[in-house]
DNA sequence: AAGGCCGCCAACCGCTTTCAT
DNA sequence: CATGAAAGCGGTTGGCGGCCT
C-alpha cells in the first residue's frame, strides 16, 4: 500500500507557475522563511499549490542565488568528472557548482553532456587506455588498467604516473587539456553542500586505499584491488565504485550499450576533450 | 505557410532518508 | 525502538518553442 499523497491533487493548482504566484511565494519566503514546514507553507502564503511544488519552485527557480543561463565549459567538466566518479547524485554534483540546482545539472546532463558522450563514443574513441593514455607511462600497463577503478577508466581520468598505486594515495589528473583539477569534495552523509567548493588547480585525490570492487564483463564484482577508498571524499559508501550501478551510477547495460559497446571490457576510455 | 519533429527544461511522481514524537 | 510525517532526491513526463521539410 502506498503512502498517502502530500496534498489533494484535485484541489491544488498544477502546471507552470504564473508570475503572480512566483511573486507571492518569493515575498512570503523572504519575509517569513519556510517556517520549517513546506507542506503548510502554501496555505499560509495564500497559494493554491502543493507544498512540494512550492519547495521545488523556490529551490529550482526563485532562490536569489540561482544562476540562470548556459553552463560553462568548466562547469561541464566538473559535472562530467563528478558523474564519472559518483554517478547520478545530482544534488552532490550541483553542490559543487554555485548557483546551479540538481534539476539544472540533471537536465543539462540528459540533454547535452550525455549526447556529447554519445558522439564521442561514435567518433570511435574506444581506444585502450594502455595505448592512448600518454600519461600512463608505466611499464605495467595491465596492472594500471586493472587497478584503475571502472569509473576512472570510463571518465577519462588518468592516473598520475608516479603517484598511482604507490603509497597510500591515488591521485588522478583529469585530462589536462579539458578537465579542471578537483579538490577534495569532502563528501559524506553529512556533507555540507556549501563547503568546500571545487577549486581550479587543486587535485582530486583519494587516500587510504581499501578494496573497491571492480566489475567484470558479466557485471559481477571481481574484488580486484582498487586504490579508491570507501572513505573517499566522494563517498564510496559500499565497496563499489559507482560504475556498477550503485546509487544510479553508470552501468554497462545502460549508457555503455547506448554507446554501442558490448561489454564493459570493451571500454577503456580516455580523453573526451569536451 | 503549415505541419512534423526534436530539444530543452519546468514540473511532477514516487521512493528513500531524516527527523520528531 | 517504532512509527508517521516531512524533506530530499532522482527518474520521468509534458509542454513549449525553434528548426526543418
TrEMBL record:
InterPro entries: Homeodomain-like_sf (IPR009057), Myb_dom (IPR017930), SANT/Myb (IPR001005). Keywords: DNA-binding, Nucleus, Repeat, Transcription, Transcription regulation. The keyword Hydrolase does not apply. Residues 9-62, 63-117 form the HTH myb-type domain. GO terms for molecular function: DNA binding. Residues 9-62, 63-113 form the Myb-like domain. It is found in: Nucleus. One of its GO terms (cellular component) is nucleus. Pfam families: Myb_DNA-binding. PANTHER family: MYB-LIKE DNA-BINDING DOMAIN CONTAINING PROTEIN, EXPRESSED, OS09G0431300 PROTEIN. This is Uncharacterized protein. It comes from Ficus carica.
Amino acid at each position: 500500500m502506498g503512502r498517502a499523497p502530500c496534498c489533494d491533487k484535485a484541489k491544488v493548482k498544477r502546471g507552470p507557475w504564473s508570475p503572480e504566484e512566483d511573486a507571492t511565494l518569493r515575498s512570503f519566503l523572504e519575509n517569513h522563511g519556510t517556517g520549517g514546514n513546506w507542506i503548510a507553507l502554501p496555505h499560509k502564503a495564500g497559494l493554491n499549490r502543493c507544498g512540494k511544488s512550492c519547495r521545488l519552485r523556490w529551490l529550482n527557480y526563485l532562490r536569489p542565488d540561482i544562476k540562470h543561463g548556459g553552463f560553462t565549459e568548466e562547469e561541464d567538466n566538473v559535472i562530467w568528472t563528478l558523474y564519472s566518479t559518483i554517478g547520478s547524485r545530482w544534488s552532490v554534483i550541483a553542490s559543487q557548482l554555485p548557483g546551479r540546482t540538481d534539476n539544472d545539472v540533471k537536465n543539462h546532463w540528459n540533454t547535452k553532456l550525455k549526447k556529447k558522450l554519445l558522439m564521442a563514443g561514435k567518433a570511435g574513441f574506444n581506444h585502450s587506455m594502455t595505448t592512448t593514455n600518454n600519461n600512463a607511462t608505466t611499464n605495467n600497463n595491465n596492472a594500471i588498467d586493472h587497478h584503475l577503478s571502472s569509473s576512472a577508466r570510463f571518465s577519462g581520468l588518468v592516473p598520475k604516473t608516479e603517484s598511482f598505486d604507490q603509497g597510500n594515495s591515488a591521485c588522478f589528473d583529469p585530462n589536462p587539456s579539458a578537465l579542471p583539477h578537483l579538490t577534495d569534495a569532502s563528501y559524506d552523509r553529512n556533507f555540507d553542500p556549501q563547503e568546500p567548493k571545487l577549486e581550479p588547480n587543486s587535485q582530486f585525490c583519494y587516500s587510504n586505499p581499501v578494496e573497491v570492487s571492480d566489475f567484470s564483463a558479466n557485471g559481477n564484482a571481481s574484488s580486484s584491488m582498487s586504490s579508491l577508498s570507501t572513505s573517499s571524499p566522494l563517498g564510496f559508501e559500499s565497496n563499489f565504485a559507482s560504475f556498477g550501478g550503485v546509487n544510479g551510477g553508470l552501468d554497462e547495460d545502460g549508457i555503455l550499450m547506448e554507446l554501442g559497446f558490448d561489454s564493459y571490457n570493451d571500454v577503456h576510455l580516455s580523453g573526451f576533450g569536451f
